[in-house]
Write a structure and sequence with these properties.
The chain is mainly β. The protein contains two helices and ten strands; from the N terminus they run βββββααβββββ. The strands form two sheets. The protein has a six-stranded antiparallel barrel with strand order 1-2-5-9-7-6. The radius of gyration is 20 Å and the shape is elongated. The two termini are 34 Å apart.
Length: 142
C-alpha cells in the first residue's frame, strides 16, 4: 500500500525589506478587459477590443511575522495615512526553500487584512489575511 502524497509548499512575500511566509494565496491572475469601439458611418459597427489587463486583489492567508514588522504597520496604516505603493516579490517555494515560481508585483497597496493572533511564546503575530491591490505583475518560472 502506497503512502498518500503530501506537498509541502509555501509562499514567501518580500516587501519593505522583510520576508514573510504564507500558507495560501488567492487571485494571482489577471483577466483581459474588453471595451467597445463604435465606428461612425452609414453602417456603424461595434467592435470589442482588448484593453489593459485587469487584476484582482491578491489575498495572502495564514502568515507569521514579528510584532514590530514593517509589513504590519504598512498593512494597518489606513486610508488617512495614505500608504505608499510598493514593489513586492511573491515566491512559491518547496519544502527545501527552493524557488519554483516568482511573481514581481508592482504598485501594491494594502487593501485590508486581519492580524489578531498573538503567539507570545514564539514572539510572532499571525496574519489571518492580507489583501493587496496592485497595478500589474511579471512572472518568472525557475
Amino acid at each position: 500500500m502506497s503512502q498518500p502524497v503530501t506537498s509541502k509548499f509555501y509562499f514567501e512575500l518580500s516587501l519593505l525589506g522583510e520576508k514573510t511566509d504564507f500558507q495560501e494565496v488567492e487571485n494571482v491572475s489577471t483577466s483581459v478587459a474588453l471595451r467597445d469601439l463604435i465606428r461612425p458611418g452609414e453602417n456603424p459597427f461595434k467592435y470589442r477590443i482588448p484593453s489593459l489587463p485587469k487584476g484582482r486583489k491578491l489575498i495572502l492567508k495564514k502568515g507569521f511575522c514579528k510584532p514590530d514588522s514593517k509589513l504590519l504597520s504598512w498593512m494597518n496604516s489606513g486610508a488617512e495615512n495614505k500608504p505608499g505603493r510598493e514593489r513586492a516579490v511573491l515566491a512559491l517555494k518547496d519544502d527545501n526553500g527552493n524557488v519554483l515560481i516568482e511573481w514581481t508585483i508592482f504598485g501594491s497597496l494594502p487593501a485590508g487584512g486581519k492580524a489578531e493572533k498573538d503567539y507570545s511564546k514564539a514572539g510572532l503575530t499571525g496574519i489571518e489575511t492580507l489583501a493587496l491591490d496592485y497595478g500589474f505583475y511579471t512572472l518568472n518560472l525557475k
